[in-house]
Amino acid sequence: MSSWEKRRARRDAISAAENLLTGSVAGPVVQAGSVSGGIHFHQFASAEPVIPRQLPTPPAYFTNRDSELTALEQTYTSSRDRGGLAVLSGLGGVGKTAVALRWMYSAQERFADGQFYADLAAGDGGEPAAPGAVLGGWLRALGVPAEAVPADLEQRAAWWRSLVADKAIGILLDNAWTAAQVRTVLPASPRSMVLVTARRQLASLRMDGAQLVFVPPLSTGDGVRLLDRTIGDDRVRSAETEAGRLVDLCGGLPIALSVMGARMASRPRYGVAQAVAELQHERGRLRILSREEEVSVSSVFDLSYNGLPAEARRTYRTLGMHPGREMSIETVLAATDLPPAVLDEHLDALLEAHLLEEVNVGRYRLHDLLRLHAGERAREEDSSEDRSTALLRIIESYIRSAEGACRLLTPHLRGAEYSFTHPEVAGKVFEERAAALAWLEAECANMISCIRTAVDRRWWAAAWYLAYVMWPLFRYAGHHQERLVVDELAVRSAKELGDLKWEGRATRRLALLHNLRGQRAEADELLHRCFEVFSELGDEYGVANTRDAQSVIALAAGDHQRAVSFAEQAHAGFAALGRERKAILSLLVVGQAKVASAATGEGIALLREAQRELATSRESDPYNAARAELVLGEALVRAGDTAEAETWLAAGETAMQTIGSVEGKAFAHQVWADFHWSGGDAAAAEEHLAAAIRHFDHQGDAAADVLRRRLTDWRAQAESGPTGRA
After folding, report:
1. CA nearest 84: which of 56, 97, 103?
2. Lowest-pLDDT choice from 111-120, 335-344, 418-427, 583-592
3. Spatial distance between the Cα atoms of 347 and 355, rounded to a whole number of angstroms
4. Which among 134, 215, 397, 723 would be 20 to 30 A from 496, CA to CA?
5. pTM surpassing 0.85?
6. Mean pLDDT lowest for which of 37-41, 90-94, 192-196, 352-356?
7. How far is it, in rounded angstroms, from Cα 558 to Cα 28?
8. CA–CA dist 690, 661 (Å, integer)
9. Domain residues of the chain, as ranges?
10. Integer Cα distance of 253 and 357 in angstroms
11. The CATH number of 66-214 is which of 3.30.870.10, 3.40.50.150, 1.10.8.60, 3.40.50.300?
């Protein structure tokens, strides 16, 4: 058994034996071996206050920095009326984060309401980290349910400021890229302290009352003490003069000294003088690189890299080809095409040299600068063909795993094919729907990076197909913003391929997304293009599928007659092709449109038929089986049959909760709101409508605005009373 498998086994054994619950928890939790009967929770907030403690582990070997720590202390004590703000700037790898963490941990008792952390470093596209994502994470840490976090940045910022307005909190914003990133997330509490680390000074934050603290390299004496602590034996103390020279050659950078210290610690016979002699060959370059932080770190990494076995160096270079920040062991196996036992030796060598971080058992990450360094080494040492091979192996490993998740979650999805260039090495095998959806969630960012990379490389088929098999993630979890990127790249890829059928499929998805975002003119235009494409191809399924999408958009726009017409055309087309499931889904839209246009009896009859048929395929398509129950319940509420409506609404809501559909849960709240309003329970109706709005807002769905107007109208009616007068 490999070491990463052993680590995973130990973790699973501990969890199984102790029934551990780890991580941040908001809301009620049940841990039990078995449960008889029903369990019902009817609250959002946690039973007890949530006190976040998000700071990373403090540095193991911290040396001096008395002047910087004193400056931070003075900032805190002199800014109590409006909250403290300090920006620590300096060379990359100089230890800014270490200083900030040291002070934050020493002052932990002052922040009784929590300490927050965010890494604001630029991502793959070179863009700074989004403040909205940071605020979303902090709101969830305070106990706000994920589905309640608003999609709008200003709303998130306002909610954040409100929740911490009188709190004693500490915040560390690491690797800030711009002053705007910082300003957006600043609290308004006079009992707060915000520390910002940045490679640039961010002097404009002085306007916000920031104290600017420069963090210089370590002095020779402090560097020697840090090196001595890192190595842990008497080699430094017995060669202090050479150790001082080593610190000077490393430019006094803690990151460089830590790498050298780790290397020496792993090689007991490697003396300080030998390390100095090795660095001496880099003397001219190091002198130049002391003024260029990225290259300076690269030079230090070169020393550790050159100490690796040749095959481990190759693995390191291959990992540098990965488009995203983190990677699973399955992806690493596919990228390197090495036997697990051999790969495990290489990974251990990289971990020991601090050239790789294990963020979880079987999951790895290269520091951003290390990933750049590995990529540089690959460009210098590997052929273009070898680099392309490694990159395509990585992308195809994601395709294989996503394909497996897609088949489990949406087996009804119309087939498409991709011709793999490389044989399967390792892939994620899914046996449960929840695990498949969780994997898609976890790897979403990596897959988008892979699609972008494939587009850059003009690997159009790989880009299109990976976008295609990501569909279950968007069906169940929403992610409208990510879906927009994926759908647009899919359309572009299909056009570049000259494949009209693939272009039509991707365009239809993009049109439905525009509809959800309230951009119906764009959606209509795209579907018109779809109809032309499929008509030109003689693709009868494509034509029917386009009519089906047009019926959905017409229904959303309130054009019930067009919705009926399009849905009936789609139903006839699917039925003629023997596509029974799709025909029933079109019949569902016909029924909805009939009910909406006051042909209630006829519409309900069609909805009952559709619900019966979709219930038979609940195992393969649980989403639409649940949707049919909710739609039927909605129609019965309109017809005044609330007793039967309640039965269908309860069944549909439970099913949507089970499969974890954000859109489905939002729709359930919307229909429950109508149910309670029709029964005269205005308070319950408003509560459900507000919940639906939160869900839709979370996705950036235009339905939120429609429901928000309805909520305003209901409140006005409730205030005016039954006679219509205030």
Report:
1. 103
2. 418-427
3. 9
4. 397
5. no
6. 37-41
7. 40
8. 18
9. 66-214, 220-306, 383-538, 539-629
10. 20
11. 3.40.50.300
